[in-house]
Amino acid sequence: MNIHLYAIELSRPLREQEVQALLRCIPYERRRRLEHMPRPELQHEPLCAYAALQFGLYELYGWRELPELTYNKYGKPGFAGHSEVQFNISHTRGAVLVGIHDQPIGVDIEKIRPVSERTMQRIASVSTEKEFFESWVRRESRSKWGGAGLGAMRKDACPAMHGERFCFPDTFPGYVACVCTHSADELEEVRRFTLK
């Protein structure tokens, strides 16, 4: 199976009726977490990420609802009873990215934003914000692939693992994204949607 990616750009905030409709479609425990966020607008990207996941699963498998989720000890979700379907979700201000495959996958998306030269040098030894966020999404997608949490992000200079591959798909202007996989399967073109 090829690797499938779904991306949504939020060019406007969600309307209240959209928020309520999307809340009804996500797993109960995730809904509870989102409902307790300090600012309601922080729900928008995670809600769209689960909408993209649900759309992808319907498109690929015909699933009308998300199966029950399980979590590893670091909190990486998976589907109970469906180990043949692997996924990963990422969201940043204004955009989301979802990856679906039949093997473990890690995805990350970040909005390119101002970063001090000192920070760029200290954390990634780079000189532009784009390079900084490319380094960031590479590290985060790697940590999300293995489900080992943020502790795995600290060492970008560690050698690549056998069979590890990073892809930097085009999503939206002003964003960088990365997919980490140990699969030789092709990366399908990103399915892009914009909330207008």
Q: Which descriptor suits the 3D outline? A: globular
Class of secondary structure makeup: alpha+beta
Mean pLDDT: 92
Poorly predicted regions are none
Count of helical stretches: 5
C-alpha Rg (nearest Å): 17 Å
The N- and C-terminal alpha carbons lie at a distance of 32 Å
Task: Quote the beta fraction.
Answer: 25-35%
Main β-sheet, spatial strand arrangement: 4-5-1-9
Q: What is the strand tally? A: 9
Explained architecture:
This protein has helices at about 15-25, 30-35, 45-60, 115-125, 130-145; strands at about 5-10, 70, 75-80, 85-90, 95-100, 105-110, 165, 175-180, 190-195. Helices cover about 30% and strands about 25% of the residues. The chain is α+β, with helices and mostly antiparallel strands and about 200 residues long.
Task: Give the arrangement of secondary structure elements.
Layout lengths: L3 E7 L5 H8 L4 H8 L8 H18 L7 E3 L5 E3 L6 E7 L2 E7 L3 E7 L5 H8 L4 H18 L18 E3 L7 E7 L9 E5 L1
Task: Summarize, please.
This protein has about 200 residues and is of the alpha+beta class. It has helices spanning about 15-25, 30-35, 45-60, 115-125, 130-145; strands at about 5-10, 70, 75-80, 85-90, 95-100, 105-110, 165, 175-180, 190-195. Helix content is about 30%, strand content about 25%.
Task: Kindly list the characteristics that best describe this protein.
196 residues; 5 helices
